[in-house]
Amino acid sequence: MRRDENAVSNRAEEARAPASGDALGELPERVKAVIREQDRNSERLLGLVQLGIGLLFALVYMIAPRPEDAHASMFSPVPVALAGFIVFSALRLWLIMRAPVPGWFVALSIFADTALLLGLIWSFHLQYGQPPAFSLKAPTLIYIFVFIALRSLRFDPRYVLAAGLAAAVGWLVVTLAAIYASEPETITRSFGDYILGNRILIGAEVDKILAILLVTGLLAFGVERAKRTLITAIREETAGREVRRFLSRGVADAIARSETLVEPGQATERRAAIMMLDIRGFTRFSTTVSPREVVDMLTSFHARIVPIVRGNNGVIDKFLGDGVMATFGAVEPTQAPAADALNALEAILDEARSWKDELARRGIAVLSVNGSVTSGTVVFATLGNEDRLEYTVIGEAVNLAAKLEKHNKVEGSLALVPAATLVEAMRQGFRARVAPRPRTSVAVAGVPAPIDLFAFDVR
Q: CA–CA separation, 277 vs 373, rounded Å?
């Protein structure tokens, strides 16, 4: 994991970057793309909900009993308004599903919805043959709050403000129209007269407008806070996904699942298996080609072996230049770590032959893959300090695996495994596809006493 310390640090800093410019700071383009997609999904949801509300209103209108003073022959604008609202909502939803809609279209739809509702309210005095002041008492006004709240489904306070301001201005226009179309004595300062008759109480209409503006302001404030939280979460989630790519999958999962803050010095003993891999001839190869070709070669190698390790319950612990260290049962305990490791080793050796043949066909110098697998009790520990942590595996099994991988040169083997590890793996269900060759009492550099080994795929 040290190999990409700078890259990980840069992405972590990006996730924690303080706000600059606007309140949320400059966002990377990939984060903006996620937010734009989130906005589009919210607009789709809003369109679906709005269409559903229109259909619900239509259903309620059909099943609700008609007012006693509404005659069958009386013209009713409600069905016309509902039909227009449903058709407009369906058209808008169709457009949203096809492609992102521009802001002006959203604003236009807000004003259209508000105008439709307020026009319906104004028509009530005509429908019931009453003075214009009659329309100001229509309970249908409460639906304006539904329209304003509807805009909070999209995390953009501008549209909440647009809906609220359109409603407030619209009601002011309706009120002024009622005052203009009424006799002067219609204006009253008596609340009783206002309630009991077709009179206009200026204070009551001002209260309605203030209520609309207050609800709008509170919703917009809440949506703005939610938007900040959403963008911060998306920014950190996006950066987190990038950072996780630089960490072993098992380690990243262990960090994510930890119920407490990960602290330096935390350690857990586990029975695990360690695999070391190395590309023979890499140093000579790297001096004859460009750095880009070196990277391409390593990438093609890693693309082959990483799925094998993960498919056998293993975790890539480190990419060591031309080498790889993988663990089985160290990050998370498993039932058969030694068997998993040897199954992975055999599969990797087979894959290495295919990779070697592919390189040969491309005229690339002959490279081979050597490896080793050991097992034993290891410590899965957190090292570093509060600012820089690293998970690592410590134990004699790790040291022995590194020494055995190097000892392949002496034995002329592709992979070496201690006899004790092979016995443990066989107890766990491992069966070698090609019988490994025993090496008895082998002296390995750095190992105090001779050990019994098994060589896999001897050259």
A: 9
pLDDT of 383 above 60: yes
- Which token pair is 247? 């960490």
Work out whether strand 389-394 and strand 200-201 pair parallel, antiparallel, or are unpaired: unpaired
Considering only CA atoms, which of 54, 33, 32, 36 is closest in space to residue 44?
A: 36
CA distance 96 to 90: 10
Question: How many CB atoms are located within 10 Å of the residue 378 CB?
Answer: 25
8 Å CB contact between 331 and 296: no
How far apart CA 291 and CA 419 sit, in angstroms, is: 40
Q: Could you give the domains of the chain? A: 2-243 (no CATH), 263-456 (3.30.70.1230)
- 177 to 131, 180, 256, 415, 419: CA distances (angstroms): 12, 5, 61, 91, 96
DSSP-derived secondary structure letter, 141: G
Q: Tokens representing 376?
A: 């034993």
Mean pLDDT of the chain: 79
d(CA 170, CA 165): 8
Query: Quick one: DSSP state of residue 27?
Result: P
Measured CA to CA in angstroms, residue 414 lies from 424, 436, 457 at distances of 21, 11, 6
Cα maximum dimension of the chain: 116
DSSP-derived secondary structure letter, 414: S
Beta strand spans in 281-338 (E): 314-320, 323-328
**417 DSSP β-pair partners:** 454
- How many Cβ atoms sit within 10 Å of the Cβ of residue 154? 22
Tokens 């592919």 sit on residue: 358
- pLDDT score recorded for residue 155: 78
Give the Cα separation of 61 and 86 in Å (integer): 13
Do residues 104 and 79 touch, judged by C-beta distance below 8 A?
Answer: no
Q: Are 334 and 313 in contact (CB under 8 A)?
A: yes
Whole-angstrom Cα distance, residue 202 to residue 270? Answer: 78
384 membership: H or E segment, kind and range: strand 368-384
Dump pLDDT digits (tens) for 87-130: 877 887 887 788 777 778 888 888 888 888 888 888 877 777 78
SS3 213: helix
d(CA 79, CA 117) in angstroms, rounded, equals 12
Say yes or no to pLDDT of 62 above 80: no
Helices (H), 64-102: 77-98
Provide the CA 425 distance to its chain's centre, in angstroms: 39
> Cα–Cα distance between 13 and 204 in angstroms, integer?
54
Q: What's the N-to-C CA distance of the chain in angstroms?
A: 32
